[in-house]
Amino acid sequence: MASHLAEALIALGGNVGDVRETLDRAVFQLCDGSAVRLLARSSGYKTPPWGVEDQPPFINCAIVAATMLSPQALLARTQAVEQAFGRDRANERRWGPRTLDIDIIAYDDMAMATPDLTLPHPRLFERTFVLVPLAEIAPDRSIAGVTVRDALSKLDTNGIERLPPRR
């Protein structure tokens, strides 16, 4: 456990099955209210596939959470949630279709690089599908000296569509 409450920015997405239902259930499972507490959640966004383009669009969202977990413990928790929804990292295509993908984008202002986890997320500043939902809930949050809003202003957001709230 971390010795203090840390603020984590977490991105979630998927493009297989009822993704909006999966995202709702994954956020609920990840944020139990004690080890991880949900502070803010973005709208869902329909986004073009990234990396591998011959696949359905993704639905992405972002959350801000308060946690006592260390970055490694938070990573283990996000991966357990992914597995609960059928994610098999060992046998999937890189950037290919998936039911659920959860990435820790930032953890307080920590910078670290281990074989399992790099903070802040190394491809954050080229990913509109992460920055658009983050900009909705944390536009002024500084990551590696750049605000989410400023990072997003450098990217093309064509093709990203904010989804209406679910009933």
Give a short summary of the structure.
The chain is of the alpha+beta class and 167 residues long. The protein has helices at 19-30, 71-84, 128-137, 148-153, and strands spanning 6-14, 36-41, 45-47, 58-67, 101-107, 112-113, 118-119, 142-143, 146-147, 161-162. The protein has a single domain (6-162), classed as Alpha-Beta Plaits (2-Layer Sandwich), CATH 3.30.70.
Task: Name the shape in a single word.
Answer: globular
Count of helical regions: 4
- What does the average pLDDT come to? 93
CA radius of gyration is 15 Å
Give start-end ranges of low-pLDDT stretches: none
Helix content: 25-40%
- How many domains make up the 3D coordinates? 1
CATH architecture descriptor text: 2-Layer Sandwich
